[in-house]
């Protein structure tokens, strides 16, 4: 490091320095340099951070210069975190939270990652683990001592209650409808509807660039057009699909099949309707929309109804539809917009944002959500093990107790209390980061 | 060759006998002791392979196991006639302990068969809680138990017994290259300067190591009432010469009650199982006939008992000490003090067929004898009871067992093995299990064979020893089923399958006789054949319904089910299947219960397998014993270093289970083990390559023209 910046800065102080190649003494960049002497560093070892400009040329030049210094090599995936973990600087859930932090592309992801690092998820699991251990202790006491000693009769009944409570809580947690995982990988939002309703225009409006080709010709979009966007801090994967209609065109038919497939997998579907096609009477319009939704979606739980081309409606009808369609039963949230004039777009974005937020779960409120598929697998095993307790409770207490033991072990695999080697192998395989 | 050697202070007398005893018919022991005079000097200078000190549960199993392995073995005890005595409760087995008895039996130990011979009240505890946690238990006739053990030892080839008190343990000067490391060379007896040399010594001194007896306010040296205290020399050698850390524990025993003075009609009758189940895999029935079994009686303490305890506290110095006593078998004093206002169970147990005494289980006490009498008379059936022998407390030294290897050998002293209460355990079964394992290893070590260990994944004995040597004890250690992680695999019913082949097959010599080995093979093969036959019965649910109309088989699934699947049903027994398919199954009727258990537990045991393999892998990664944890160049906290330095786990697996060891510490140790192993390997490879190069050079030079 001295070779790069001539003089060691004081510990933990950011200083602006010229960064030079030790071989050619060429100045590569001017940036901030930070020195963390051991053990007060992320990994517990002597560390240096270079904060440089992000252009690929600069980054490459600095990495090459570093690589030319004897004894330096690029870190392997996850190596910094692994070293930090080995130095006792991080617990297991914290390590995983940190992985997310480094991957965090958006603000909300960053918040959830930070929250996990501070151990909130760890605390939830720890609480379960403590309660399970207590259940186990009671069953074990009943097995090992009840013949000799006076163990109260109610012991097992209390365990029964605790076990079924825990099972219910864990299952509820598992049924968080993938919120945490969604936050990590993005909410799948699909735009669907009849041809020429303005689906591609909506996509372009949302991502604020012409990502999809827009034309007045019905059937312009034939394949799925995907774009990732940050919606008020939440990651969204937005897909535009082919308009749904029967077509003799082979290519278009394939596009329609893919569109339907996307809709089935979607977390949220935006059904776009051309308002000009709506009957003018509110009741008939509602019936029309219900019928239309049925042709697009299997159920209307997770969709928003977007009535596009509102600018083509007379002012009076527009207001009537806007106010009266909102309260109609059997319809999802309805918003009138115009991609042409941007009318209603802001209000629609608010609704969309809150839907996405619900799907992700606000990382700052409510029960912590699952952020790792690994957690899910262990929790499922934990819940299944508790079911084993219930299954054998009356016929074989040894096998019932085995269920509670397995449940404790499964949770332990998340909180990092059991089977260190095996867990580490899995984590660091999953854990492809380089700090 | 059988021999028994007696010598006391006044008369040195050697009794020698050669007899072939029938196991099933115990001869009257004393008739065997036809004296053959021989001077004690014959023992002096004699080189034994193994000397076992102590004739309790640990000592007798150790001596028998060592002799079975093939070592010339000498058992030294203070009184020959107390060999095999039940010092405390007249019972064997129970939950967790019963598993140990089955395992000792599977390794051809004595206590299971002795229990079958001496039992007078058999019952399987936890009968309704699942076969993995069944606790085979028996009340014993004290006299019969002792007779059986003594006659077994007398008929054991290569085993000599001698009466005497060990004054000193003989060890070499510390090895200058390894400071603090000694080798055992023999023992020296009291009352004379007789040194007897041996390559291994097993100490099973029970409560006699610096033991003191407590009754009321009086204290006297000793380990058991009626026996002389052991010499202070042994404690001195262990502590001062060998530098072993010791601790102090306490235990106690209840007063024995005159049976005729108790009104048993006021207690609750407790009957034994109508079909007694033997402990031993070699026995099909117990010595005692079902109808000859004796009952036990249950009664409860009253508020009067608590009052007497409280009033006499100042007269009870044992209870005032802060020495660690067992939480699991507490004295009546600690029971009422810890749980006041409650009524506590008291079992009145028979002491034997001809005995006129009762053993009040749960009334261990150390107050003065007159107050003991007042106390028991507060319990309704004992209103007019008389005490035959008062209860008393014992305090004794134990050697912190973390100083032992998993073979129960003292790490710093080659050839010195410890077993039983000296390692901080309590209970006959725990002592017997350690005795057997220490004896077998002492013999192997003496015969220049490597010592062997049992994993906690395969046996309760392994759990017991691993807990002792890797965690140590803070109170007397007793076995529970909850200590075994793989309880559903380590069942009492399959101890023979788990251990007998292993006990036989340790290299060329094992501790299992060929009779037992052949029997275990027969059982294993029959069970395998039966399971294969069950799996070959492959029928649709509707066909099963026709075959077994009384069983509620759900027909919703149109799958095919095997006989093994059916046997997993709650209401299906092997007998039912055998009567439906007599041609393929009836030959296995002998194993009906074992097959039912195998079928129910098989899926769970299969699930255990992977975890067991992981643990065995970690147990195979050994940590060097001479490692300096304080200077080890890996990232470990001072606290972790301190724990590792204190306990010195022998494997990574043992380190993982230590309290206070973090996952991060385990990873670092793992890396260390891997790196050092890799280095060793590279080093070996290098040396091999160098050797190869040298050879090539030689070959080359040989081919060079002269």
TrEMBL record, chain B:
InterPro entries: FAD/NAD-bd_sf (IPR036188), GIDA_C_N (IPR049312), MnmG (IPR004416), MnmG-rel (IPR002218), MnmG_C (IPR026904), MnmG_C_subdom (IPR047001), MnmG_C_subdom_sf (IPR044920), MnmG_N (IPR040131). Its cofactor is FAD. SMART domains: GIDA_assoc_3. Residues 678-706 are annotated as: Disordered. One of its GO terms (biological process) is tRNA methylation. Keywords: FAD, Flavoprotein, tRNA processing. One of its GO terms (molecular function) is flavin adenine dinucleotide binding. GO terms for cellular component: cytosol; mitochondrion. The keyword Membrane does not apply. It comes from the Eukaryota. Residues 599-671 form the tRNA uridine 5-carboxymethylaminomethyl modification enzyme C-terminal subdomain domain. Belongs to the MnmG family. This is tRNA uridine 5-carboxymethylaminomethyl modification enzyme C-terminal subdomain domain-containing protein.
